[in-house]
Backbone:
């Protein structure tokens, strides 16, 4: 609708979830832009652009290859959970509406646990039933307090800060509808795929967009990702055309007539004099004659019908014509009744006794 009305140049949108869940001083704004993107958020970092894949099981058609997932240590070193194996790449679907950071295959999850450590509450694997549904819960003192970097398509790397990777467990009770924080545990926003879901396509969820900027163009069938500059000043808007080319002209011509205004009366119609009242109608002589003939025909028809009805009524009262003698105190026998009506006359009691 917006494109048809020429308010945007393409069926494109861009989204940044922003830093959420951590301390207030480490949070940032979010952004959703229709028809273009914010070049301030994209910054000057390299980007990856892929083609929407309509032959995959990915519901959003944004299919990517994860070629590495690394744990980032305080001393500046990184450790890959792929352990240098090039055959460990993960094909995943980017879904901005999906809870958590990502669903991760069980083999990769096992390697993550070996490197990151941590302890489940009560030493049993526990999962959240809150906002980041079915992601992992840990004891607060043993959870992984480092960053994590996801490398895509051997092209760009998205670093997720620990304030977004490990967050308080937040739930929304149906009774109140308000967010409640469970401070006795920490929520690691990864969801290991195992058991009945072991063959599912991994999904990269909305929390990737805390640190990545996503642009999707359904006219060019492409999508792009940047490492977002979440601290940048927002507002450097640019439009995307049907070929996904960037233009500095974001809005259409402001002199274009508004579609809502064009549906109403023109401005000059209110000052015009009201139309003259319709002149009274006069019937011609032929029309008057036709009406009179029709009235006479109707009266004659009623008289004929009345005579026919009266004649049939007299014939029905004549003896021997369609007349059946029956007791006067009984109703007529319905034609659908299985037995004729009859008097129920009690039989005489036997006067002789044994």
Residues:
């Amino acid at each position: 609708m917006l494109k048809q009305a020429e308010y945007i140049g393409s069926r494109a949108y861009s989204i940044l979830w922003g830093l959420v869940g951590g301390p207030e001083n480490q949070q940032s704004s979010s952004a959703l832009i229709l028809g273009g993107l914010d070049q301030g958020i994209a910054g000057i970092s390299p980007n990856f652009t892929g083609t929407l894949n309509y032959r995959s099981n990915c519901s959003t058609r944004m299919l990517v290859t994860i070629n590495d997932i690394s744990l980032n240590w305080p001393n500046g070193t990184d450790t890959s959970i792929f352990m240098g194996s090039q055959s460990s790449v993960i094909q995943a679907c980017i879904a901005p509406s999906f809870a958590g950071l990502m669903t991760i295959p069980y083999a990769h999850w096992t390697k993550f646990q070996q490197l990151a450590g941590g302890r489940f509450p009560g030493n049993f694997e526990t999962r959240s039933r809150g906002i980041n549904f079915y992601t992992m819960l840990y004891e607060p003192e043993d959870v992984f307090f480092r960053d994590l970097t996801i490398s895509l398509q051997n092209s760009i790397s998205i670093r997720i800060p620990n304030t977004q990777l490990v967050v308080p467990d937040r739930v929304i009770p149906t009774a109140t509808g308000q967010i409640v924080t469970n401070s006795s545990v920490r929520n690691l926003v990864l969801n290991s795929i195992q058991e009945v879901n072991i063959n599912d396509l991994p999904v990269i969820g909305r929390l990737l967009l805390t640190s990545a900027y996503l642009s999707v163009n359904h006219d060019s069938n492409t999508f792009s990702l940047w490492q977002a500059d979440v601290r940048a000043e927002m507002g450097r808007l640019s439009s995307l055309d049907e070929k996904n080319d960037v233009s500095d002209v974001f809005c259409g011509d402001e002199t274009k007539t508004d579609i809502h205004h064009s549906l109403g009366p023109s401005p000059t119609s209110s000052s015009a004099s009201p139309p003259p009242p319709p002149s009274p109608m006069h019937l011609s002589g032929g029309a008057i004659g036709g009406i009179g003939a029709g009235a006479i025909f109707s009266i004659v028809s009623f008289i004929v019908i009345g005579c026919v009805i009266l004649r049939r009524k007299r014939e029905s009262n004549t003896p021997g014509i369609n007349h059946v003698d029956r007791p006067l105190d009984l109703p007529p026998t319905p034609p659908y009744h299985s037995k004729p009506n009859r008097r129920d006359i009690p039989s005489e009691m036997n006067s002789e006794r044994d």
The longest helix spans residues 285-316. DSSP finds five helices and 20 strands in the chain. Residues 21 and 164 are 6 Å apart (CA to CA). The helical segments are 39-42, 106-116, 162-165, 259-262, 285-316.
